[in-house]
Amino acid sequence: MEAARKEDNQQVLKVLEALKQASQDLHKNPTSKNNDSNSSPIKALLELQTEADNILSNDPNLSKLSNHISNLKNLISNLNQSYGHGGIRSFLLRRVNRYEISRVASSIETEIQAWIDRESIENLVNSLREKLVDEEEKVKLLRQFEERVSQGFDLNLQDLVLKWKVFSVLESVLCDLNCSKQVRERSAFAIAALVQFNKDVFVGEVLMGSTVKALIFMSSSSSIQVLCSLIRLIKSPLVDEIESKGGIPKLINLLNSQQELLIKVVTLDCVLEIGYFGRKEAIEAMLEAGLVKKLMELQKSELGGDLIEMSEFEEEEKECDGVCVGGVEKKVKGKKQSRERRFFEKHPFVSCVARFAIQLEVGEGLRQRERRAFKQEIVKRVREAAVSDAEAATVVAEVLWGSSP
């Protein structure tokens, strides 16, 4: 029974997608010189009408769409009849009809998208709740949902998401240790997409639920990437939640040398975001967890270094680029940014101590006196962690004077 239903829905979806494309074309170009029943978008809609009528009549959710298609057929007929008459009245009627055709075509597109959204969300929720559904199918549905909500706010879509309690379903999958890592990570990305979709509604869900704890507990590169995205979206309240859940030490431990490179790179990004948005308690927790020492270890690694090396790298790149004739400012600036990006790709941990200190300096979470106090604390911890006076002097100079590009 369920298989037959899915097959029917696939047939409906195929027809509706064709109708949607034709409606889009017609909405974009309703005033074509050859705007009659033989024009491409209109012809496509009329050819699909007979097939669509048989399908639409079986689904009460599509009755409105059926009415729109019938209305469109009448408008097209009126438009064609008006071409047989001259005068200002016929000209005005054609203008009105073309406007109405464009409006109805847009309504058809909206109704089709609403049907697709209903079916997609119902299918997503049922699949995630069903243990026997193939994992690849779940990942596919999660990607489709993420892509859909990433297209921008839609009130009807939001109503469906709330009606089906999609956030709760995604969060339960994220927290379910019996689910595969891939499905849990895709659920995490879908949650981040929902927050981006409407922060007013879904930020509260994140802060009150178990999402933050689950992301930290997973400690994968994808989960930390999502956590970093949520920090950028929610800012200080999300950092407060991480700190209150005891997640700061867990994150700092991910910077250890035995972790895989990608995890360390995304964790550093997360640490820098926390430095920018974090309040006093979060920054204290990071320093107490040994952040400065770990950053210095990363900075001394092959993928670290200081920004003096970046200057040398830029000089080498300039020689490769050659002389820029004409002195176009945007072109020079674009090349500089491109060189910096390539350098950081090869040296992700360069001057990471100073970069963290600068995040505190320019960030939103600290008062001015707290910034000054933390800078001195960082300098103190640098000197304690340095293996030589030369190393300490180099890092302290970057921290004090600010060397972030």
From TrEMBL:
Organism: Aquilegia coerulea
Top-level taxon: Eukaryota
Descriptive protein name: Nucleotide exchange factor Fes1 domain-containing protein
Signal peptide feature range: none
